[in-house]
Amino acid sequence: NIQMNPLGTGAFGKVYKCVSVETKETVALKSVKKWTGEKEVAMLEKLRTLDKDNSNLIKFNKHFEFAGFLTLEFEMLDMDLHQFVKSFTRPLQLPEIQAITQQMLVALDALKSVRVVHTDIKPDNIMLINHQQLPFKVKLIDFGLAHTISEMHTGTKHQATLYRAPEVLLGLPLHEGLDMWSLGCVAAYLYLGQHLYPSRCEHERMRDTRKFLFNTLGSLDDIVRSCPDHTGNEKAFVNLLKEMMEVDASERITPCKALEHPFITSARNLSDSSHQIQSHLCNFISMSILIPLRETTHHHVCISNRLHLVELYGHIPF
Q1: Which helix (H) or strand (E) holds 294?
Q2: What Cα–Cα distance (Å) separates residue 158 from each residue in 56, 62, 164, 207, 232?
Q3: What mean pLDDT comes out for the span 105-116?
Q4: Residues pairing with 32 in the sheet
Q5: What is the C-alpha separation between 210 and 268, in angstroms, rounded?
Q6: Are 26 and 17 in contact, with CB atoms under 8 Å apart?
Q7: In the prediction, which pLDDT does 146 show?
Q8: How far is CA 154 from the centre of its chain?
Q9: Would the pLDDT of 120 be above 80?
């Protein structure tokens, strides 16, 4: 006995806001094809050992078959970050980004503890719990594309194009570090109000990644220095982005280490100078100046060469 109102439709199914006639509890029901839902249910069951509130993961209640589909019942949340950013009347400030990033790092650390990779970190899959009562309190949702680390095979495609890590593009060995890259892209998006990589296809994505790594016209540090009133918080934010978006996945910061980073641990009120930093960053992006994350290394040159070959041939020709 339920009353159902549609919330949205995705690639794998539909989501409804429902009220149980018996309990009066509001929940979200996700209706998917059986073969798709069974995989997600198996992953959600694997995550039951985790404390969903302390881990910032959506609560999964139960599943059942309804009208020929598998239906998954979750706690009801508010809106996703993509909707929130589009509806917000001002750019997000560093304290707000700090809060969201910290909670997602906790979520990634929890997933790492059970050797699970989400593979689809993006604003659409990060939801506010209740922005009116719990401002900027968020949870990670949608485990339909999640894998255990043992299932992450070299050469398989994962992640939305705008949040895809270099190792996925290049067919290199994969592990949970690809989620950290995606979260770095999300943090930058929240700060800029636009994507670091506006690429819409694989070819453009590879081209932009090469530019991002090796264009010498400036760096994130240069942008921070160009603002006379910057504080250590802006520097810490930029430094964390570099660590999160390290091209070499084996050197990328882990969730546990990121939670100890000064940007996350700092309790100080972050300066209003972040408005100026945002302006400088947006100017750099609008002029198509893509920024290297750290000094060029031999490993980065090898990655750039691989990307160039894929641009030319559509694959690495050896």
Answers
A1: none
A2: 22, 27, 7, 18, 35
A3: 97
A4: 13, 70
A5: 36
A6: yes
A7: 95
A8: 21
A9: yes
**Strand pairing of 26-32 and 13-20?**
antiparallel
Residues annotated in the binding site, as ranges? 34
Q: Is the Cβ–Cβ distance between 205 and 163 less than 8 Å? A: no
Q: Is 243:252 a contact under the CB 8 Å cutoff?
A: yes
Given pLDDT bands bounded at 50, 70 and 90, which one contains residue 2?
low
C-alpha distance from residue 312 to each of 111, 197, 299, 307 (Å): 37, 20, 20, 9
Q: Which helix (H) or strand (E) holds 310?
A: helix 298-313
In order of start, what are the domains of the chain with their CATH numbers? Answer: 2-75 (3.30.200.20), 81-313 (1.10.510.10)
Residues that constitute the known binding site for ATP:
34
CA distance 78 to 126: 10
- Residues with active-site annotation: 120
Phi, psi of 127 (to 5 degrees): -115, 140
- The pTM of the full predicted model, rounded to 2 decimals, is 0.78
